[in-house]
Amino acid sequence: MFAFSPFFPENTQTNLFLHRFLGYDTGIGGAVSALPSFRRDFGISPSNAPSTISNIVSILFGGAWFGALIFALLSHYIGRRKGLMVATVIFTVGAITQTACKGNLGQMYAGRFITGLGIGAVAEISPTFTAECSSPKWRGRAVAMVEMNLVAGGLLSYWITYATSLHIPPSSSSQWRIPIAIQLIFGGIAFFCTLPMNESPRWLISKGKDSAGLASLAYLRCTNLDDPALLNEFAEIKAQVKEEIEVAKGVTFRELMLPYNRKRLFISTFLGLWGIWTAHTALVVYAPTIFQQIGFSQATTSLLASGVFATLKFVVTIIAIALTVDRFGRVVSMCVGLISTGTIFFSLAAIQATHPPRAEGNISAASKAMMALIYLHVIIYSFTMGPMPWIYSSEIFPLRLREIGQMAFSVGTCESLRFRFHLLNSYRS
Description:
Layout: H1 10-32, H2 36-41, H3 49-78, H4 80-99, H5 105-133, H6 139-167, H7 174-194, H8 201-206, H9 210-221, H10 228-247, H11 259-276, H12 280-293, H13 299-324, H14 330-354, H15 365-383, H16 388-393, H17 402-428
Protein name: General substrate transporter
Domain Major facilitator superfamily (MFS) profile: 11-429
Catalytic activity: myo-inositol(out) + H(+)(out) = myo-inositol(in) + H(+)(in)
């Protein structure tokens, strides 16, 4: 299924594919909740729609928080590959639970939570696995491509839901069940792709399995065991692992609170929070509802606008990764992104307050202006706060604290997702 490449080996490509289904599931909850068939089958009325839809969306991130926390520890002991295999099984069980729903909101909530466990595990393990399997020259770009594949998954979720809204009548449950069931395809492909994967060479070496680590590295680089370049890279990895083990002896989470590490911990943890508090994730998962609220009242129209939003994000993310991710400073890029997105949302609120959308009739100029601002936001975000936090957080910790520092970033991100959507749930209800 995947091309053998020393630049982006099949391990890396599989990890990126895993983020594609992660992005799909993040977007699908908000997408199908806009369908009339879904609202009819689950008894969602205008009065309870805000709280019910918020529950359907937010409970995924509650599961993701637990999944990230559990697998941050588990993958250290059982390995990256086995951790991802377990994660895909959990994800598939959750997808089956959702697909089999017959109007039971409790079952849908349970399925979303179980799926969230698998998503949190993938979000925790996959970026590390990707970095450990990529060649040094391409490592930064491979990690940045995690964001691109998240976007690609969200892109699919909206366009598939838009297609079912056009070609399947609202009287049929298949209109919402098909987009949900496609998660099973992602989960099945992902599981079978993890079976032939090699374990991370760095993880194997860290566990004293040097021979297996060398063989895995040779496989990933598509070369022979006696290749001088391969042996040099192996020696470098082994020396780095040895140094990390030596400097990390006795390391504890308490050490992160020492004065010279506290700043790094704060930055790493709150980068995840700041990325979420740009409200970009809310736009992604609630896009159809948000476009309805700014004047695109028809479900089909709002899904079309959401599909354009996801497509624009995907294209701009590719451009950012290819051309700009390594050209500008990390801090400057993130500051520009935060200030710009804040200004955009202030403008959105001002237009919404002074020129509320029309209840009926043609789409107003104010609604079109708000749509343009949302699209401008996604362009700026994709160049700045989309890829930069992932890269920056992996660069600021010393070797001794790098692993638990990355854990702080991942858990902080999932915690911010959970908190953000519980906050939205309370506000919207």
